[in-house]
Design a protein that fits this description.
By secondary structure, the chain is an alpha+beta fold. The chain is 49% helix and 27% strand.
């Protein structure tokens, strides 16, 4: 009959769905209105540490979501049943042994005759993503700690000229905190005499992808500015690392050493010349004495 054919088609569709779900590396599940799991793919049992016959003894969504997130999870389920889709909700979920990991949940209602009878969803672990993010944060902390140890100004600027990072020396030079420095446009902090040239160097570094260096004079101080492009994996410039070093005292020290060296050399030459001249004069006197009658 038509009814039996429809039921057979439904069973076939569900069989194909479950076979396909078993091929996925993410957790795929179905549950009834009470949250009791009625289906879970192979990845779910591996990820959450349950035996393959666990559904026969009963597993509820509440068993999978951390207690502190369960109330929020219930609100999300109710929202989905009311017809409002929610995608990519983040929860802390827990395995059978109590260990936890962060995950994103994607779910939709299972409908029968237009009415919800349960949920079908996917749980995606974002553990690796979180670890990568933490490693990135650690790397940035180490980098800025090293940069804070130098008296040179260091800035991280995006391609629009907005400061995305600054070391302590940069903030101190502006009379601001690091938090107050970040978010400003680089044009707001460069002194007027060198502002146009600095902006031109930034634009050139973005356009060419090549590092640049230039010496600038501000009053009686001499600075060396260096601009290094920051590129992504595709080689596209995504920002600039800008360094400014005050080399005034270093140049003065070099000049003083050079002058002292020249003075010492001149003194040494004069001393040697005097010794030679004295020797010549002595020889001349001896020669004169020997010729006397």
């Amino acid at each position: 009959s038509e009814r039996k054919a429809g039921e057979e088609a439904l069973r076939e569709s569900e069989r194909r769905f479950r076979e396909t779900a078993d091929l996925l590396p993410q957790t795929v599940y179905e549950c009834d209105l009470a949250g009791n799991l009625t289906f879970a793919n192979r990845a779910a049992f591996v990820e959450f540490g349950y035996p393959s016959d666990a559904l026969s003894t009963g597993v509820n969504l509440r068993d999978l979501i951390a207690p502190e997130d369960w109330e929020r999870g219930q609100e999300a389920i109710a929202t989905i049943y009311r017809g409002t889709p929610l995608q990519g909700q983040e929860y802390t979920v827990r395995r059978r042994d109590g260990s936890r990991f962060p995950a994103l949940s994607y779910a939709a209602p299972i409908l029968r005759d237009g009415q919800p009878v349960g949920l079908r969803g996917i749980i995606v672990s974002i553990t690796q993503q979180r670890r990568a993010e933490e490693q990135t944060r650690d790397s940035r902390r180490v980098a800025w700690t090293l940069l804070d140890a130098t008296p040179d100004i260091a800035l991280l600027v995006d391609v629009d000229g907005i400061i995305r990072g600054a070391n302590a020396a940069a903030a101190a030079g502006l009379g601001l905190t690091v938090a107050e420095t970040v978010g400003r446009h680089v044009a707001d902090i460069v002194p007027s005499p060198g502002k146009v040239r600095m902006l031109e160097r930034l634009a050139e570094a973005i356009a060419t992808g090549q590092p640049l260096a230039a010496e600038t004079q501000q009053g009686d101080r001499t600075y060396v500015d260096r601009v290094h492009p920051v590129v992504d994996d595709a080689g596209k410039v995504t920002g600039l690392a800008v360094f400014c070093q005050d080399v005034t005292d270093l140049r003065r020290a070099h000049d003083a050493i050079r002058l002292a060296t020249v003075g010492q050399l001149a003194s040494g030459v004069a001393h040697a010349f005097n010794n030679l001249l004295a020797a010549i004069m002595q020889q001349a006197e001896r020669a004169a004495i020997s010729r006397r009658p």
